[in-house]
Amino acid sequence: MDETLYKLMRWPEIEAIVYSEHDDPHQVLGAHKTKSGMLYTAFDPNAERAVLLLGEPGKAEEIEMECVDEGGFFACLAPEGRYRFRFFYPGGERICEDAYRFWPQITEEDCREFNAGIHYTIYEKLGAHPMTLDGVDGTYFAVWAPNALRVSVVGDFNHWDGRLYPMRRLGGSGIFELFIPHVGAGELYKFELKAKGGLTYLKADPYANAAELRPGTASRVADLRDFAWTDGRYMEDRKKIDFKASPMSIYEVHLGSWKKPEEENGSFYNYRELAVMLAEYVKKMGYTHIELMPLMEHPLDASWGYQVTGYYAVTSRYGSPEDFMFFMNYMHEQGIGVILDWVPAHFPRDTFGLSNFDGTCLYEHQDPRKGSHPHWGTLIFNYGRPEVSNFLIANALFWLTQYHVDGIRMDAVASMLYLDYGKNDGEWVANMYGGNENLEAIELLKHLNSIAKKRVPGALMIAEESTAWPKITGDLNDDGLGFDFKWNMGWMNDFTTYMRQDPLFRRGCHGSLTFSMIYAYSENFILVLSHDEVVHGKGSMLGKMPGTYEEKFANLRVAYGYMACHPGKKLLFMGQDMAQLAEWSEEKSLEWHLLTDKVEGDEGGTLNAKMNAMVRDLNALYVSHPALYKLDQDPDGFEWMSCLDADHSIVTFVRKTEKPEESLFVVCNFTPVVYEKQAVGVPFAGKYKEIFNSDATAYGGSGHTNARLKQSKEERVDGRDNSIQITIPPLGCAIFTCTPILKEKD
Predict the structure, then answer these.
(1) What's the whole-model pTM score?
(2) Which of 156, 270, 274, 326 counts the highest number of beta carbons within 10 A?
(3) Are residue 40 and residue 131 in the same domain, yes or no?
(4) Do 561 and 702 sit in the same domain of this protein?
């Protein structure tokens, strides 16, 4: 070896490169100025020879590099200039740009903000991002792994060899980065980490924007820059909407089983195909929004997306990130809002994912009493670590900004708020004050909701929270958590319990029907009949109903009528608007045939088709009558007329706005008994016209309706000065418009 070259070699660092233990390879590899000239070094353990190509492509001078370490380390002295390397192998050769000649794209300010937990666009820095640097196309990789000895990028482009492409550690930030030329969108990759003690293993990228189709677990390079959005008008209009005073009728959807291709065999429709079919159905049915069960990448279909391994990657089951952008853009062009389920409460233990990421409990707590759910078998995020809270906060913002999602529905919030959630004595650790409140999770939620409101005006933050924790939707300045809406799990449990009762025994649990109005204004609620109610042996909504086959439908019709008129926004899980017979399964398509099966002697179609038509009409009535939504969060928007008639299981009430003429009078009978010429108290003297009746024959009912306009009389009923005589339908809901009659002044 040339003596000058020998003296320039930093042998301990070369050894660290050869043995894959160097965390700052840029200090050794690439081009470095010395007193003896420009020193060029390269490493490829599979190469027999290496040549420096000095100069522009096509005019480059070839300079043989000396193998200074038989492990594959090559070096030479040459003039300064544009350069590349040519490596020779037993089976061929390759010419490549040097990955170690590019400056970091992550600044010291980026690192400081990330380590402080306030870098809200960190997803633009960490992960894999195609870009062009110094005229060279490639992909910039970055990952947070502070306790790793060494991190490398591996993929098809380097035969998954972790000795190649070791990454540079950026100071004390814990971030490793590397730009790899000629790696582009579509390439599969992982990070190979060497932990303290020498254990070497592969991890998927926590910030990856795409992943390979399960059962594969590799991340995939994706380019999110080129999609041409055309929903600008929708996004601007969204900022002006007061959703608390607007109708929200939400259709909850699991994309993989909403509709499957005819051939089944485990295949799925693409996001683009689903967009067109789903939008057509949603518009026909009159829903204002859809809510998608989690679309973040997950390994197990049976988890429905609630055990996430790729928080920044839209699942590849239904297509690419660009395909999902098309889905979102199309929905917005059709005027349909999209809410996305999001799971910040826990993550699975899959070894390729976040668990024990850098050889330590990085994303989760080290103490299992804080870091694991004993009943779910999953891990709990360490919300007190700034980089972990940053990961989650930025992730929610990522979906809201990069994919134009209209709202985030946060799953399992109760499990975040309580340190002892689902745990027995000895399985949890109290907070610094001795309580069971998770102070770090509370701060995370407040932080996220505050930033979301500032950065994404018009986006909705929704909590699925199953306890009586106060001020879930309370103002942040009043010690609230700052959510826009909360799922009303209490109403769902009480109401389904009530509806499952035989009508003869409903008188004994009348409070389950009316109790929700005691706390209806404590939060901004969404009434839900969600997927939770139609899985794990609970049966379908129709299956919960008592009675004969026909009575089941009647019970479900009155249930949906009552739900539509009860204060709160609405959510119905897919399949239940056509009274699906079977319990939902992610393995099967919805029972669409129920809408088209021929029924002999019934030209109106099946009871399922009639139920579907009734839900469609209910949605249309709901969005067209401000009384059903405008004062959802105001006690002035609701008034009981009669709520104590447990013996007959009948309730009557009024939904109101500031204008009396917009009022709606509602009667619900939860028994199969019809009441002819029944006097009921009404809110004021006026004319009452029935505009909906769930017992109409068009909906499969017995036809006990009120065709004629009803004029009130000054006869005291139900404690009211005015009343009307109506037919109360059996197992039915009747809705009347109210036109006040102004009395002449004396």
Answers:
(1) 0.95
(2) 274
(3) no
(4) yes
Partners of residue 96 on adjacent β-strands: 85
Between CA 444 and CA 538 the distance in angstroms is 34
The per-residue pLDDT for range 193-233, each reduced to its tens digit, is: 999 989 999 999 999 999 999 999 999 999 999 999 999 99
State the total domains in the chain. 3
Q: Which residues contact 713 (CB under 8 A, 6 or more apart)?
A: 722, 723, 724
pLDDT in the model for residue 58: 84
Q: Mention every residue, 6+ apart, whose C-beta is less than 8 A from residue 695.
A: 554, 557, 701, 702, 703, 704, 705, 729, 730, 731, 732, 734
273 a catalytic residue: no
Q: Is 605 among the domain residues?
A: no
- CA angle at 372 for the pair 371 and 374, rounded to the nearest 5°: 155
Instruction: Provide, rounded to the nearest whole percent, the portion of the chain with pLDDT above 70.
Output: 98
The last residue of one of the domains, among 205, 220, 235, is 220
Using DSSP's 3-state secondary structure scheme, residue 327 falls into: helix
177 closest CA partner among 147, 153, 201? 153
Query: Of the listed 97, 187, 291, 411, which one is catalytic?
Result: 411
User: Is 479 annotated as catalytic?
Assistant: no
User: The CATH number of the domain where 91 resides is what?
Assistant: 2.60.40.10
Exactly one of 23, 464, 484, 617 is catalytic; which is it?
464
Task: Judge if 654 and 673 occupy the same domain.
Answer: yes
Range of the domain at 140: 108-220
Question: Three-state DSSP class for 425?
Answer: coil
